[in-house]
Predict the structure.
Amino acid sequence: MKKTKIVALTSLLLTLASTSLFAKPKQKVVRFGSANGEGRPYSGLSGVAIAHGFFDEEFSKIGWKVEYVTFSGGIVLNEALLAKEIDIGAPGDVPAVTGFRNNIGVSWIATNVPVQPLSFATRKGSGIKQPEDLIGKSIGLALGTNGQFLFENYVKENKLPREKLNIVNITAANSRAAVITGDIDLAVGTSADLIPLTLRGEAEDFYNTTKRPDWSAQTIITARKKFLKDNPEAANAFLRALIRANAEVRLHPEENYSALSGKTFSNDSPLGPLLYDSTQYTATVTPALIARFQNLHDILRDIGRVKGNYDVSKDVDNSYYEKALKQLKAEGYKLPD
């Protein structure tokens, strides 16, 4: 009886050892967050990379998978990065500034949307024709979002008394709805969202940055520094996919307007060539983009949203991009200059 128990125990141990020996390792996951809003698809180069399956392809090569997470805005996305709920994020520039200043432990490793036109749309019959007409009017602006960059630049250049401007802090979606119903006089947001309202006659176009790219917003790619250090192969896979998306946009812009806009409009929309200049698209962090980001920080400091001086470039890390680009070129990919 005792011998039987020993044999059975030995058999069990051998079975467990065999199972452990040949068990597949748990698949690693990268969690990529977007601030486009709950349930909405990704936009910019990341939207193109998703649409063409580039992320899935590159991560499958290293045995990883991608999980996509959307948030209601960049501030919430920053909180998720800080809490290690996501590894890589695509925040707008205003939330990114506050994230860097709050030292949430991320690096700027790539650019998702280098030039995102912004707009002011007014309610029909608002009477707003000149900059000074904004005084006393209700302005729908989601503070802490990309639209604030245009708003603050416009106010500063036209020397408007900010204390006399009636800012209603509401989400971009609610702002669009409110300007249509006439509950606010002016909505501030992305041109991809607001220009369609004016084309349908639901609102009036007051100003947009299609001729002022220096006032346009940008969406950047940030990643947790600890994640980058521990998983350089994941950073490499992500950037390979983003660089391939950039090449796709340069080579076939008219086929990618929908993905660039976050599927806000279709490829055959006249807004495509108006809002997305493929020659301006780049996945790297250029000196010009850093300078525009620095300008944004200084504006936010001047209005008291952030305090003290800050050098944007200290949180830029292009090393992962440069390695990925070098690899792709060596593999014969046709890439933009």
In short: The chain has 14 helices and ten strands.
